[in-house]
Amino acid sequence: MRLLVPPLAVAVALTGLLAATNTTAAAADRGSKPSYRLDCDGNGPGSTCTVVATGKARPHRVEEFVTTVRSGDQVWARDTLYTRDGQVRSRPFVLPDKDVTVDVSLTSLPEKHVGTPLRLMAWNLFVGGTYNRQENTGENLAQMIDYMNEVNPDILFVVEGYGSGQKILDGLNAGRAEGDRFASVQLTTPEDYSVNGDNLWLYTKLDIQKVYPRYADADISSFNLGGARLGLPNGKHVHAFSLWTWHDGWAYGDTHDAAVQNTHGLPRTKTNEQILEGDNLRRVAMGKAILEKAIPSFIGDDDAPVLMGGDLNAQSHLDWSEQFANAPGHGGVVLPWPYTKLYTDHGFMDTFRYANPDAGRYPGRTWSPYHGMGAIPGRIDYVFARGKDVRVLGSRADIDRLPRHRQSWLNQPYPFYSDHGSVVTDILIRGKGTGPDREPVTEEPGKGRHIWPAEPAGRRVPPAELKATASTFKPGIGDPRNAIDGKLTTDFHSDYPAVPPQPHTITVDLGRVRELSAVRFQPKLRTNMNGTILKGMVQVSDDGITFRDVTPVEWPRMTAPNDVSLQGLSARYIRLRSDYGIGGASALAEIIPYEKA
Fold this sequence. Notes:
single chain; 3 domains; Deoxyribonuclease I, Chain A
């Protein structure tokens, strides 16, 4: 049945609607049958709700609740929660426009046999935190280490250590108590170094019991995979691997172009089938070597949990399913990616998507806080976990500097510490131990969700009635007339390298004084976002000589259109002063003025 809830956050009992299951496990017993209700802020689809579940609180016991919101086989929300008082509240979720059921399971555990919590972090550091040697002051690496200490992972999977490995270890351990220190393993061996040197590293607070030997065959080497067996405080162990797989067949770029083309009714440059073939150039073979050869050779028949983190250069089949075809930025594109599905088929959980199953609400972007987030959710970095005793408590993707670092000069050219976002996941390994010891990480909903806003009110001024000039432009392909030609596939672009340096201006002559309602600035719709304008000033003029400021603008590193309200202002000329654009350049696909109808 469709779940209907009254407005004003009224709690609703779900008797008869919920499928409840009591589970058992070693050292666990059946909890009392839980009761459930929803707290919602509205009535029907689009409402934001939480599941409130209540069981029986018992002395010296911890209750494990698992809540799942689903429509058939489509999961929209999922939580694993622990409590000593018998009541939990899930994270908020949005009711889909479909019939839903809520499943709740309850397991009661002895308070000293809940499990061991672990925080996992996976991150590609972009040549050791140096932005491919562009940032050579060392300040970014120092801030990066400060951020790592803020996250405080138990296991850190690193890609592109590239010469910073020991500095990171020293920075992580500075000032730490003896029982809270990290150890590290350089996993990429010298025979597999790239031009930049070493690649994969593993940092951990756990006891490193064994480092696995170099594995190499026709498809992978220690440049792609390496790991170690790590001891848990309760005497058990886990297997931990850092990994990186090849970027040939650029999954992000091809998907980006397809979504943009679908959204704007442009001809497709590649079919879905051609896009999916990108995984088969190298990544599928690499994945089979990792999952079917290398890892089995390391762990044999050991059924201890396996944890992996790294940069796959691949999109997720879980994100690009039919369920999310109309999610913001997806443009109706459905892509059953074969590479990431290999990990699911081999029993691994994509921990971010497990904790945040609604890919529309939680896109989990990791590509690219530096190069630009583009038009689609680029999620190419992962933390995987496999094992019957593994419970995922929460996961998030970080793409912004810590607040205390945003005043640094680094923040404008380098808004995060790397060109990749990091993935942080909290898990629990069930067994001996007192359970979670800190609040699990959570992803913020809506980061980058509203990708294509509705068109501004008013009458669009026809391109034929407009003229454009610019203070600088790249002859031919960067002509300012490209910004008023009504075509999303042509761009204005400042001369590059940027001569003169910013600020740059582009001015649109409306042909006569008009009463304006808004103006839309459409960034170029390419995966190469060089020149995308991030800061500037919108100005107007009646004579084309004297301009007055209307409003300062600060825009995200995305290809979404940026709309500025002009509220009935009268003018003949509109000018955008570009104070800062990616790479020191200025670029736009279109400037679209709207006049009052």
